[in-house]
Write a structure and sequence with these properties.
Blueprint lengths: L8 H7 L3 H22 L4 H33 L3 H19 L6 H30 L3 H33 L1 H20 L28 H31 L6 H25 L2 H19 L7 H31 L6 H29 L8 H25 L18
């Protein structure tokens, strides 16, 4: 039975852990690989961007189909736990190959490893997110579930941000990467255990439909608006994430501090989650989200003016953008779960497939287009650093401003909070 009200603590504690290894695995693929393959392996930025764009777009296309198929399977088998576990071996394999590529066929190795990792990651993550929608039907209860999941995710990214450099420093490059991949596998397997009890299983009921109906929810204008804003906000985040190590290494000249900046960023995100939870309960989710995007925009603009040695100023920017991360990660899934309630069919997997589709398309566009653009604008390692600063700071800020404007014009709420208070004309 779907719970109403705030989910009990034992439900949150069992649901949250899998968010940690999923984020632990996603962060290096999203944040570390572009810099690693460009600097250590010498892959041209344009080729690297093209591979990331193509594979991410393929990944985005498959997500709605995985979501719809998952709904059908879960309906027949009364739950999603098996599907959540199915993706784990494939994720472990793909992750290992990404950090142990075949140097004789680097582009082929990268492409195949990304395809394997993303496919199995989608199977697990879509069903994990859909389970969160099925565990509660309450407006604020959904936000508690997504916030608990993202809290686990932030712990995962903290570990992923700090552990590679530490492991390679103490065990050497090759052994350090082996241990890094092993740690990912261990965390994945352990995080599956809390989801096994029968109390975490929810029957999936609804009318089985044809595969092409995955786009049917897009007929609802507020849902389309939500996904467009997600596309914009996540594209800006993807640009900054892709260029993070380039910016810290070359503009700030502070490579040794990169793991510290990442920890500050993600730790600020974890600490900021209660703030956005309170704001979304006090007003509504879309207002809280809009405020967070505005705050991130000011921080990005400030980053453009940083130069070598501006470590404290950049740390402040990491704190500010980190605080907004919790809202950007937890509020859109909670809004989407509200939209799924308004559907006459029970298909939250389809809805989260759509959300992942858009989020991954955003990552593809952000990472895939910014690297060729930098090369086109004349950037190369150590040269034309203004291009790097412009692409890292100004372009994400402009995209975020567009998202803020659209959130002020459009409604993205799936339903209004009971007795909610709104702020007319607020940022």
């Amino acid at each position: 039975m779907i719970e109403r009200g705030v989910p009990p603590a034992f439900t949150l504690l069992r649901y949250a852990p899998l968010g940690m290894p999923l984020a632990f695995g996603a962060l290096p693929v999203y944040l570390l690989l572009p810099h690693l393959y460009a600097t250590d392996f010498g892959m041209p930025l344009a080729l690297l961007g093209l591979i990331l764009l193509a594979v991410r777009l393929l990944d985005a296309i498959q997500d709605p189909l995985i979501g719809l198929w998952s709904d059908h399977w879960a309906e027949r088998h009364s739950g999603r736990q098996v599907l959540i576990a199915v993706g784990v071996p494939g994720m472990i394999l793909g992750f290992y190959v990404l950090f142990h590529p075949w140097l004789g066929a680097l582009w082929l190795s990268l492409t195949l490893a990304l395809v394997i990792f993303y496919f199995f990651y989608s199977v697990t993550s879509v069903n994990y997110q859909a389970l969160g929608a099925e565990l509660s039907s309450d407006y604020n209860g959904r936000t508690w579930l997504t916030t608990s999941r993202e809290a686990g995710a932030l712990i995962g990214v903290l570990l992923a941000a700090a552990s590679p450099d530490l492991l390679m420093k103490y065990f050497g490059r090759d052994s350090g990467l082996d241990l890094f991949c092993g740690l990912f596998a261990l965390l994945l397997i352990l995080a599956l255990l809390p989801l096994r009890p029968a109390s975490m299983r929810r029957p999936v009921s609804g009318n089985t439909t044809a595969w092409w109906t995955f786009f049917a929810p897009l007929k609802r204008a507020p849902l389309r608006h939500l996904l467009i804003v997600v596309l914009l906000s996540q594209s800006a985040n993807a640009i900054a994430g892709t260029l993070f190590f380039f910016f810290v290494d070359e503009v700030l000249q502070a490579h040794i501090w990169a793991p510290v900046f990442l920890v500050v960023y993600f730790l600020s995100g974890a600490l900021g989650m209660p703030l956005w939870l309170w704001i979304s309960a006090r007003f509504n989710k879309s207002i809280a989200w809009r405020w967070s995007i505005a705050l991130a925009t000011f921080a990005f603009i400030g980053a453009f003016f940083l130069r070598s040695g501006d470590l404290w100023a950049y740390a402040v920017i990491c704190v500010i953008t980190g605080l907004t991360l919790g809202a950007d990660q937890s509020l859109p899934p909670s809004l989407l779960a509200d939209h799924s309630d308004g559907d006459t069919q029970s298909r939250p997997g389809n809805y989260f497939g759509l959300l992942n589709w858009v989020a991954k398309a955003a990552t593809a566009l952000g990472a895939g287009l910014i690297l060729p653009l930098m090369q086109f604008m004349g950037y190369s390692q150590g040269k034309h650093l203004w291009v790097l600063s412009f692409c890292y700071a100004v372009i994400p800020a402009l995209v975020k401003i567009l998202a803020i404007v659209l959130l002020g014009i459009w409604s993205v709420e799936g339903r209004m909070m009971p007795s909610s208070k709104t702020l007319s004309g607020s940022i």
